[in-house]
Write a structure and sequence with these properties.
Order of helices and strands: EEEEEEEHHEHEEHEHEE
Distance between the termini: 31 Å
Structural class: alpha+beta
Shape: elongated
CATH topology of the largest domain: Rossmann fold
Number of helices: 5
Largest sheet: 7 strands, antiparallel
Number of domains: 2
Strand order of the largest sheet: 4-3-2-1-7-6-5
Strand content: 35-45%
């Protein structure tokens, strides 16, 4: 979802090596004998110096030895990107939206660009957002990608934690459509978004 780093974590007198993951709403650490999840909503203080990122939360203070990443991660925790920013929506872009019923997303989208097409796909779209609740809908990816600009992107938004539609299934459908996956983002507490683009070698001039 976000960024990751192999590092040490210090909890009191205990020091453990493992992997830290910076997600959109939480910090996760996975070590051989330690699993830790710190929601940013629970963080009361953030400090970065000497290559260490220190997060004070309800259970105490966790210090992550991140080197040059410490200050950058601290800044991202203090000033997280909005969903629209994470999805790469810029002013003036042509955006097509299919089967996504999220009032907050649609409001923020309309505030970012005036060129939003609902319930159909516009030729020359910079971005296409496709809501998928069943595997069968994934068969549309190849057809939809033909409406993208050469450097455009198609985001597939699908539910988290479901057996009938999985990340593996979405990735496979994108591959069958001749697309390349380049990014994953948390769209909402219940949905994930996967970004696909046309391979560079197959892009035709606009």
């Amino acid at each position: 979802m976000g960024q990751e780093a192999i590092c040490k974590i210090r909890l009191g007198r205990k020091v453990v090596e493992g992997k830290a993951l910076l997600e959109s709403q939480e910090m996760i650490f996975r070590g051989t004998d330690l699993r830790l999840k710190i929601p940013f909503s629970d963080v009361s203080a953030i400090e970065a110096n000497d290559g260490w990122l220190r997060l004070t939360y309800s259970d105490g203070t966790a210090a992550f030895e991140l080197g040059s990443h410490a200050a950058k991660w601290a800044e991202k925790i203090r000033n997280p990107k909005s969903l629209i920013e994470k999805l790469g929506v810029k002013a003036g872009m042509r955006v097509s939206v299919l089967a996504i019923d999220d009032p907050g997303f649609r409001r923020d989208l309309a505030n970012r660009t005036d060129d939003v097409i609902e319930s159909r796909v516009a030729k020359g779209s910079d971005l296409i957002f496709l809501g998928v609740e069943q595997d069968g809908t994934l068969d549309k990816l190849g057809q939809l990608s033909r409406s993208l600009k050469p450097n455009g992107a198609l985001w597939v938004v699908y539910p988290k934690g479901q057996k009938h539609i999985t990340e593996g299934g979405v990735l496979a459908a994108g591959k069958r459509a001749g697309l390349v996956d380049v990014k994953v983002a948390s769209f909402s507490p219940t949905h994930t978004a996967l970004k696909f683009v046309i391979p560079v070698g197959r892009r035709q001039p606009a």
